[in-house]
Amino acid sequence: MVLGHIKLEDYLRNVQGRVLGNLVTDAKDRQYRRDYIFEDDGDNLRVRSKDGTGDIVLIPKSIELDESLIAFFGLYSGDGAKGTEDRKEIGRIVPKISFSQKEKHLVRFAVDQFRRLFPGNIRFTFSLGEDSAYFMAGEGKRRLDAYYLEHTGVATPALEPLDVVRPEINDKDRQYITEQRPDVLGRNEDHLAFYYQHQTAMQMIFVAEKADELASVGIQPDGNINITASLRRPFKKGARQPGGSSRSDEIHLGGLNGFGELFLKMMHEIEDSVLRNTQVSSQGLIRWVSKPSDVGSTIDLQDFYSSNPFGRINGERPLKIIVNGDELLGQWRRSSEIRLRRELRVDPLWCYVAGLYLAEGSTPKDSLFKMFRSSPGPMAMGFTSSEGASLELMLRTLRKVFFPEQCLDAWKVKVGSQYFPELVVIGLKNGVPMLRGGGSGDGKLRTMEISLAIKQWALDVADLPLEGASLLSSEYSDRYSHVEPTGSGVARIDFWASSTLCRWYFPLLMHTVFGGIVNDPMEEFYE
Amino acid sequence: MTSHVLLPGVVLAAGFSHPAFEGYLREWREKVIADAEVGIAAASNCQQAVFIELVLEGRLVHDWLSIMDDLLCDGDRPLAYSSAYGDLLYKFGGQYLQSTVHSVYTRWWVETLCRQGDVDHCKFAKQVLAKKRSDALIYDGDVSPTVLRHRMKAELAMSAAMGIEILAKAEMLTDVLRNQLAASLCDPQKIPLLGYMTSEQFRLAALRILNYEEQFPVGIYECIKACEIGLLHGWSDYPMASKIDAYMGTAKRTARDKPIHSPLVACHVAALSNKVEELSQRGAIEERLTLYAAKLAGNPLDIPAFQMRDIPIPFGSDLTPIEAVCASWLISNLQVGGGQ
Q: Residue B232 forms beta bridges with which residues?
C-alpha cells in the first residue's frame, strides 16, 4: 500500500540542488551538505554532485513509500553507515552508503530495496570483517585446520617467525608490536606472525562462507556483486581471547558515490515527519498521503493471529485470542495471558520502527526468522539508543498494540568504559566512591548516588528532539533502574519489557517488513 | 579543627562559605531533612548536610545521629541507604541494605563530631577490619564482588584512607597491619599510578597515616600537569589522554570528550602539591591554584557538569554541597592572600 512519496524532483528544485542536514548519532552532532545538479530522464532524474565528483545516479522523480521501503529506511537508520568525519572540516561528515547486517534475509531485503530505489547500475560489495584471533582457537582454529587439510593435505602448519612471514614490516605493524593489551597472553610479534602467515587462508574461508550464505537467499556473485573478507590483526578488532570473535558484515554500495547526503536526507525527513506526525516533512522531500497517523491499512489482530501465515510461532496459533470488550485477550502456549488492542494501523510510524527494531532491538535476528517454524527459545524485548527520537518512536509503536503499562518494565543507562572516569568524579562530587556490580564490574552499579545523578540526563536526552515531554519522561520516569557500566560506548538509554510481548509484536513486525514479498514465512525463512 | 578525608586541606568551620552558595546550601540541607522525615536518607546526604551546618553555623544544629540511628543502621552496621532511599531506583530492592566502608566512616565521623570522647572507635575499627581482603586492601568486596582489576582505583584508595583513619583512631594499627596496608597501597599491580588526582590524594592520605608517606609514587607533578590539558583554569580529575576505549585500546572514541574543572579536584591537587619536590614546579601549581580561586571568586557558580560528547545536557552533577564547600575554601584562601 502506498503511504506517501519521496518527492525528489520537487525537493531538489525547491532547494536548488543544495542538500543540507544535521545528524546526531552516538552523541555526536554533525552536519552534512552537498550541492547537486540534476536533469530529466523520463520518469527518473539523473543526479550528480555539482562539484563533478562522484557518480551519476539514476533515481525516480517520485518514489512510492510503501510499508517495506519505510521499514528499510528504519533498518538503515539503525544499521546503515552515516558517514565519516571530514578531516578538513570539523563537525562535517561525508556520508557513504553502506550497511552492516549479517542476517541473510535482511541482507536480501536490503539489496532488493536498494535496487528499487536506484534502478540504475549499482554494485554491491559484501565485506566480512573479523579479528584474526578468531582463528587461533575453538571453531575458528577447526575451520583453519580443515582449510589446510583440504588444500595441502595436512593441518595448520606451525607458527613461523615474524621475520620469515613478514620480512619487512610497515608502520602499522610497528605500532601493533608496541601496543599493550594486559588481558592478552603471548607476544605481539607472534600474533602478528600468525596474522601474516594465515592471512590468505583466513580470507578464503570467509569469502567461501559469505558466498554460500548469499546464494542461499538467491544472491549470486556476478559483475555487480563482489565478496571480500577483511581480517584485522589479532585482538585489534575486539576479540579478547584466542578464538574470540568480533565479526562485522558490511554491504558497500558502488555507483552511488556522492549520493550519501541525499540518501541521509530522505531518511531524516521520513523520521522527522513521523516523529512530528506531519503530512509534509519540513523541507518537502516527504509527502504522506495524509497525516502519518491516519494513513496505512488496518489489521484486525484477532484475524491476524487466527489466519495470517505470519501469525504463527513454532507452527502454532495462539492458544487463546478472544475479544474482551474494547480489547483482546491473548495467550500463547507456555506463555502468559496478555491484553491487546483489537486493531493496528500499519502507519509510517509502525513501519519505520519495524525496520529500526530489526536493526537495533536486543532480540537475536535469526530467531525472528526461525520462530515461525520452530521454537524460538527464550525471547527478550529490549531497545537501546542514545537518541531520544528513536526511543520515543519505539515506545509509541509498542503502545499501538499494547497498553501503556505493558510497554516498559524498566530502563537503565548503559555507560561504556571510556566514561568511567566521569562516573567516578560524579560519585566524588556527591561524596561517594563508585562501586560496581558483578565480578567483572558490568552489573548494576551499587552506588545509588551516581545512578540518580545520571537519571535527569537520560530524561532530558529523551525529551531533546521533541517539543513536549517524551513518553519516557512523562510516563516511565519512575521505572528508572540503574546505571550499568559496560564494555564500550557512549552513554545510552536501554529499556526492556516483558518477554510476553515478543510473541505478539514480532509476528506483526515481520509481517510489516516481509508481508509484501514473502507469502509463507514457515516455508521461505530457513527451510 | 574539623576536617574530612574527602575535603583535603579544608577546615570545616564557619566563616568561609561564599555568600553565593548560602541559599543553595540551606535549601539542600532542608531537602535532606524533609526527605528524612519520610524515611529517605543516605549516608552521603547526611555527611554533606553536616558539612553544610559546619560551614554555615560552625556547629551541628540538626540531630543527624538520630536520623542515622533510625534510618541508616542495620543492628550495629551503619548503612549507606535507607529502605525508602532504595526505592528511588526502580526495583533496587534489598540492595539498599549495604554497609560500605564509606557508610561506616560517615557514621564514625559524625559520631566523633557529636560525642567526641564517647565513641567506641574499636567497634568501627572492627567493622573496617572485616572489610580487609586477602590482598591486604580494605574495600567493599562484600557489597561489590568486582575483581580487583576492574575496581575503580579511586574507590580502593578512598576506602583505604577512610578505613585507616578509623584504625589509627582506635589504636588498632599494628606494625604488621601498617606494613601490609602500605605495601599494598604502593603496589602498582594493585593500585597503579593512574595520575587521577583524587585517587592519588587518597593514597597519599592513607600512606601519611600509616607513616609511609615516602613510599608515595614518584611523578605526581607530571600527573598534575596532565590534568591541566584542555582547561583554561583548574584541573580535571584525570588526564584526558588516559581515557581509552577498553575494547579498541585507542583514544579514537574519546576525541570529543571534554575535561571539566572542579573545586573538589583543585583541593586534592593542592594537597598533592606537597609531594612536588621542585620549588618552581610547586610554585606553578600554586599560581594556577590562585588563578583558579580568582576565577571562582568572579563567578562562583561556574562549576560545570560533564557533557556526553556534543549533547548539551549535563551528564551528572555540577554544583553539589561538596563542590560549594571546596569552592568557598579556595576563594576564602585567595582573599587571605594564598592559593592554599
A: none
